[in-house]
Each structure stands twice: as structure tokens, then as C-alpha cells.
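Now read this:
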Amino acid sequence: MPGENLSRDEARERAGLLSVDGYEVQLDLRSAIGETEGEGPRTFRSVTTIRFRATEPGAATFVDLIAPSVNAVTLNGEDLDTAAVFDGTRIALDGLAAENELVVDAQCAYSRTGEGMHRFVDPEDGEVYLYTQYEPADSRRVYAGFEQPDLKAPYRFSVQAPEGWTVWSNGVGELVDGVWKFAETKPISTYITAIVAGPYHYVTELYERVFEDGTKLEIPLGAMCRKGLAKHFDADDVFLVTKQGLDFFHDHFDYPYPFGKYDQAFVPEYNLGAMENPGCVTFREEFIFRGKVTQASYERRANVILHEMAHMWFGDLVTMQWWDDLWLKESFADFMGTFSMVEATRFTNGWITFANNRKAWAYRADQLPSTHPVTADIRDLEDAKLNFDGITYAKGASVLKQLVAYVGREAFLEGARRYFKRNAYGNTQLGDLLSVLEETSGRDMATWSRAWLQTAGVNSLTPQVTLSAEGRITELAVIQEAAESHPQLRPHRVAVGLYRRSAEGELTRYARAEVDVEGPRTVVSELAGEEAPELVLVNDDDLTYCKIRFDENSLAALREHLGDITDPLARALCWSALWSLTRDGLMPARDFIGLVLRFAGRESDIGVLQMLHTWANAAVTHYAAPEWRAEGSRQLAEGTLRELRFAEPASQNQLTWARFFASVASAEADLQLLRGLLDGTAKIDGLDVDQELRWQFVQALASTGAADESVIDAELARDDTASGKRHQVRCLAARPSAAVKAQAWAQVVESDALSNALVEATIAGFQQPAQRELTAPYAERYFAAIERVWEERSIQIGMDVVKGLFPSLQDSQGTLDATDAWLAAHEDAAPALRRLVLEARDDLARALRAQACDATAGI
């Protein structure tokens, strides 16, 4: 892995020397099917021609390529000694001319890790499917190139594929004499080029738009998936959201979609949610739903479709110069995904999901020791890989939402329009965006940027209420605090809401004021004289990015009347704030679980309900005092079954409670119910136990020892598909047996035979909360293995192993000490590896603090 790294300094030096005129890439993928010859990885031929200029004739540089072998390298007509110039990751180039032509003929390897050219064999029908995934720097696994975002160039791809296959790339393609030839792209970065190839099921549509000046735009639309998923593929809904998104961005960006066609490929074993390759967007195929799902799943898919579409402008048309400014694409896409979804689609409650779900990711990331400013210090590619995190995405998006409140909606959008027109097909840095926003808003963006983009950490905002003898507010202030490690106090544009119960018992807002919070204490003078509130909600309407705290009266009101809050966004914000108190060790985990059991059944927003289930599970697994954990699990299972039985038949809530019940069931009566629902001897009115729900029930039985290998194999026989195989692997690894755990560990840590998807499934099965004693022996083995795994495996698999197998279930001071000992003994380990261990250590320390808080509740 270290030999594959590229530093920022190296990239800057190369960008100062070179400009790239174009690529021609020829791939022969016919080797994707049939038997392999000889030993070693399955490979394909890749021939790359690069035309580029050098500012210093005679200078030296290098081109990036990760490949098992190179057949030939020719620079300006001269054949180079491949053994001398190629080291496995780079090809050294000396004696450059002013104008150069480089030809690299290589044997590149198909991937099983989701990086580069991923090859997947469908167990259902034996068909082979290929797709590429490059971000941040894996195009070099498919063709030779200058692998950095600021050396943009046009590309021409041609691909030979097995007979009967279709091939897609960024440009429009056609089959000419047995070779797929693609139109030249606009200048784009290496990491967003793409190839998708195989016998995919493909559906087409057409988007048409007539602009005010009378010009007409037509965009061919396509959507594809494996043939085995075709019967589940609701392409009509994908196209509906796609057209709505294109309309929205054309209305607001004043820059027509610039990349011709718009294909969307749903591909197997994908590591990410999706990737914004212009003209050929790739998504994980789990967005094609094999069974009944809630509206939250459709909303999530719509959000991702629109997130990737926003990238066509923020990221593809205008690209950050280096990964320091990754936020220039990801933060904007994350914000615009929700912004456009709420305004252009049926998912009008998207900001509730954003406040409750997306921001939770940001708040966690911003309290880790690895937190960083939105504009990060990215030294190399390993840093870049780890910076696709909650700060860059969700905090950045939250900050942009605050920016819209700060400068105004129209100033923000006009700034975006000017930014696109001035920097089209180029690369930018922070200052390029701030300058146009200063023009359009008249605001001091440098001060705003220093506070919000260039410092780390999250502030806490707490209301302070003083009442008169007559029960009216004499003063309401907002107290702003920051952690000692990140003491920055920021300017916040916030809404402060006052809530009281009505005669009908509903907790509703009766007064609201918007105010600029500055410094440690800000008085909200507009609310003086109002009647005494039962609840004060700072950051009502979720305008800013902060941790919401409560005064004592407000917290007491939530304990009794949380379910009476009528506004779903306000309710979601309160839930998020209560979870933050629990994570921070300020509210006992058992109290949070009690609130979930008391009020979650009244939750109307299905996405919020699903998040509450996730948090309740985490609370009992990690934050409850060990001596109360079994009791908490029992209460959670009993309460969940009660809500499942009370839920409206065939409703989204019923399905959501059924899934949660499968994750918490452990008592014999609960397991018996799951068996009955599987074999048809038990029934819950309206509950359709489809194949996906069956697998969740089987895993619950397997993890408790109530289903053996024969039961799991029988379920696979019912669902002998790629999805079924992943479920089977997870269930097998979840069984409570020392031999099972040993086998799972060996398959993931000691072998690279499993694909990325099966590694993920095995790790998920290995880590079962009720099996702490079984996995305890692997804590020591973990620390002995991770440096070797990091060095020997791809960065994606390395991340999966280091994060997924950290002994978080061994939540004791001993595990914390062992983590500290490893960190002390490995100060020279790869910074990215140390970061992952430091983050896991912080989560463990937080869990121990929360457990100590919970233990006091039992005294």
C-alpha cells in the first residue's frame, strides 16, 4: 500500500511541469470470461496513449500505473526498458520534450475489492459483470495516467468486449467492427472516467428541455442493472427523479448539463453509495429493492441520485485542485442533494432526515480526535481516502445550509452560477468560491470562512431563561460553548422557538425569533415578555450546525411530553439532541432507551423512527452499564414486540418495527415467533415476510444458536442469488461458535480470497453484541495483525478490517489500555492507519464514560 501513495507536493510539482492534451485508452476485456491461463491474477490488456506538454524540456516526471506487468513503454517514438522504468506503481519518464507522446501497453488486473476494474460473477446465472470505480486514485489500475485531479484532459476510450456484451463509458458509444468506440469527453479528471461492461439489463428514456431563448436540450437517459435484478428494477421512478433533478438544476444553475448523455448503472459489490462519473454514474445495486421497503429507502435513493447529479457541476465541470478542497464538491453535492429533493420531488420532508440522520454523522466525526476543518490538510492519497467522512460531507453541507441563511438564497445561487461560468472545465480552490459569494452577497466571506471552514469542532448552544414573578420571560439568552480542544466560538444564525402545550395536550410553538449568536452569550431580546415556555428549542428549523442543549425545565418537559411535539422537524431535532446528551455521558443510556420505548411508537417520520432504532441499539450495546445491559435488552425486545403488534397492518411503521424486532430478539418466546413467521405457523396481521425480511429473521436465529448451517443453507436455496449469498455469509459468521469465529477471522484477516462484499458480510456476522466472550480472544490478535493487513491489502479492505474488527465489544479499560499500547508502539505506522485506530479508541473511551453515567442511574 505505501508504494501506491502520492503526496500533495509530488502532485504540485508535476502539475507545474505538465499540461495534458488528451488520452486514448484501448482496453481488451474479452479475458473477463472463460478460464484463466496460468497462475496469478486474471488480467486484461490496456494500451494508453497520452499526449502532453512539458514546461521544462529535458525534465523528468512519472506516470501512474498499478499493474502486474507492462509489455512496452514508448516515449516520443523511443522504446524504454520496462524493467528499468516501471516499479509496479509508477513509470519513470526522463528527458521530456516540449511536446510528448507516451504509449503504455500493460496487463492490468481485474479487481475483487471494488477498486479499479471490478469483476463480479453472478452466482445465479454465471454471468460476468464489470464496472470501474476510481476515486480518489484507482484509474491507474486500469490505464496509465497522471493520477491527480488538476491534470484534466479529454479522453477517447475504445473497448473490446465478449460477444453479446454492451459497454458504456462517459461518452456516447457505438459498436464498430467488434470494438466499442466512445465519443471524446470534455476535459475531466482521471478519477471520474468510467467503464461499465457486461450483459446488463438496460432501460432508456429521453429528457427534453426548452430554454427561454428557444434553444432545446435533449439528454438521452439510461439505467441498468444485472439481469437477475431486472424484475425488481423500478426504472420509471429513477427516471422521474432524474428528470425532476435536471429541471431543478437547469432552473437554478443557468448552465445546461454539459456532458451529453446521462446513464445510471446499479452495480454489484460497490463500496460506495454512488460515484459521479459524468455521463455514466454508478450506484450500489442495493438501491434496487428486492422486497418491501419504506418511503425512507426511496427518499434515500432520490437523495443519492440528486447528490450525484449536483456533482456534474460541483466536481465534474469545476473540480478542486487537490483533495484539500474535496468539500468544494462533496459538501455542495450533499447540500444540493437535499435542497433539490425537497423543492423538486415528492420527498418534501428531506430536511428532517438531514437534521436527524445526516447531521448525526457529522456530529460524531467532529468530536473524534481526527476531526479537521471542512477545508482539510490532505498530505497524500491515503489522507484523501479517509477524508470522505462526516466532516467533508455532512458538516460541510450543514455549513452551507448556514451559509444560505447568512448570505440569502439568491446570493448563494447567483454565486454558484458565476462560479460555474468562470471556472468551467477548470480547477479551483477555496478563494475562487469565496470571491464570487462576496460579490453576490456583499458579506465578508473571509471572516465567515475562517470561523466555519477553517476551524474544527462543534459548538453547543444552551438556552438560559429568566422569568418574572408573573411567569413571563424577562430575559432569554443563548450560551455558546466549545470543547477545550477546539475553542472556536462561531457566528450562528439561529431560530429560537418557544413551545407550550395546548388545551388538546399538543406541544406547539407559540413564539419564534431569529438571531445572530455571537460569542459566549447572546440575548434574544425579541422574546422578552413572552409567556413562560415549557420547551425552549435553540436552532429551531435547523438553520445552523451545533449541538442543541436544554435548560432543566425544557429537559423535564421532553421527558414527559416529547411525543406531543406536533412539528416533525422540531421533534427530530429534540431526538437528535437527546442522543447527543447520551453519547456525551450526560444522560443515562437507560433513560434514552426509556424515551424511545415511550415515544417512538408515535413517531410519524419513518426515517426518524429508523434512526431511533439504530440509536437505541447502540445505547444498549455500547452505552448501557454492563450490569444493566441484559435488562435493557429485555426491555427493548419487549417494547419492540409490543409496538410491532400495535402498528397499523401493512404499514411502513409495522415493517420498521419488524426489522428492529429481528435485531433485538433473544428470548425463547421471541425466537419461537420468528420461527413461526418463517415457516408460516405464526402470523402478524398485515406483515408480509418477503425474502429480505426472511434473511433478517434467519440471522436473528443464527446469532442466538437457534438456526444451524442447514437452516441457513436452506434459505440460500430459496434465494440463490448474489444478495442471498451475502446474507448467507453474514448468517454463517454470526453463529455462536468458537470454530465459526476462527474460520471467519481466517477468511478475512489471513486470506484475500473473499471479495469486498463478502469481507464486509463476514465482518458484520463476526461482531455480535451477545457474543462478547466468543470474540474476546481476538482483541490481542487484532493488534498483532492490523499493520500487516494495512501493508498487504488494498486500502479499501484495510479500512474494512481495521474499522470492522476493532474489539469495541470488549468495552473495558483493558481494551483501552491495549489500544494505547499499540499506538505508543507504532508511532511510525501509516498515518491513515493510526487515524482509524485513534477513532476507534475514542469511540471506546466515549462508551466507557457513557457506561459510567448509566451506572449512576442504577444507584
Observations:
- The chain is about 45% helix and 20% strand.
- The mean pLDDT is 96.
